[in-house]
Amino acid sequence: MANWHNGIVVENRRITERLTSLKIDAPLGPFIPGQFVRIGLDIDGQVIARPYSLVNAPSEFPLEIYFNIVEGGPLSPRLFNLKAGDNVKVANIPAGFLVIDEVPKTNCLWMMATGTAIGPFLSILKCEQVWQKFERVVLCYSVRTTKELAYADLIADLQKRHAGQLVFIPLITREKVPDSLSMRIPAAIENGQLEQWAGVALAAENSHVMMCGSAAMIRDVISVIELRGMRRHRRRQPGHYTTEKYH
Ligand SMILES: Cc1cc2nc3c(=O)[nH]c(=O)nc-3n(C[C@H](O)[C@H](O)[C@H](O)COP(=O)(O)OP(=O)(O)OC[C@H]3O[C@@H](n4cnc5c(N)ncnc54)[C@H](O)[C@@H]3O)c2cc1C
After folding, report:
1. Residue 2: is its pLDDT beyond 80?
2. Selecting from 3.40.50.1820, 2.40.37.10, 3.20.20.70, 3.40.50.80, what CATH number does the domain 100-245 have?
3. Which is nearest to 37 in space by CA: 65, 59, 75?
4. In this predicted structure, what is the pLDDT of residue 210?
5. Which CATH superfamily is domain 4-91 in?
6. Which of 15, 32, 161, 183 could form a disulfide with 187 if both were Cys (CB 3.0 to 4.6 A apart)?
7. Which of 70, 75, 243 to mutate to test the pocket of ligand 1 (most atoms within 8 A of CB)?
8. For the segment 74-128, what is each residue's pLDDT rounded down to a tens digit?
9. Ligand 1: does its nearest atom lie under 6 Å from the Cβ of 2?
């Protein structure tokens, strides 16, 4: 059973009218980059909570989550409207297996995110372990429009710091924008454009794929990469992909 820390909102930084980054001051203990924590609000005398990935590295304070409003959802519209100084509940137990320790050693790590699911990958990329473990990291970030491409400055900074090791591929599905692909991730795997951009093969022999976000993206990527002989990774049966589904 989780106990609740009382958190205080430090900042609510709107990215668009539907996307926001919430910074929260709460005494959460150690967590592993890529993990999530349950965040909640007291609503009519009851704590309503949902899992949110942490965007900050474990060494960074305050905590940060990145999310969108789900129309009609009990929690996200309320979280979206919080202001600096407001109270929020933070569960004391971080959880989740979308972490580098759970990925077998290979040459190339592919990170595939839709929308707000970029969060856990940013936490991982801010930390040293991933850069020690893999020769190449390919970050594929799929959004609908350019303005939804949050954390572009942070990603540009990571590209500078890890030049030659990090490849960043933005996929903007509803716009045609230079230096991006205008298609969904599964299509870009199927037609070879993701590999062409990355300059590396996406194959069982050299790659592991971490996927995070919508069930549709995860399902469709799995169906393409399983045709290449890639299998779900399990501790007792090492494989080639790992997933975390938000919805
Ligand atoms: C392990 C885990 C980590 C998560 N981390 C994040 C995160 O970092 N950022 C984030 O934005 N969300 C994240 N989510 C989703 C989040 O927990 C909530 O479901 C979401 O914010 C909506 O909350 P709600 O209470 O308003 O509606 P809910 O009652 O949770 O959901 C209402 C309906 O909307 C669907 N739904 C949930 N999220 C979305 C979405 N983004 N777009 C469209 N439909 C959706 C649900 O499947 C459900 O059918 C995560 C989910 C899981 C399981």
Report:
1. no
2. 3.40.50.80
3. 65
4. 98
5. Translation factors (2.40.30.10)
6. 183
7. 70
8. 999 999 999 999 999 999 999 999 999 999 999 999 999 999 999 999 999 999 9
9. no
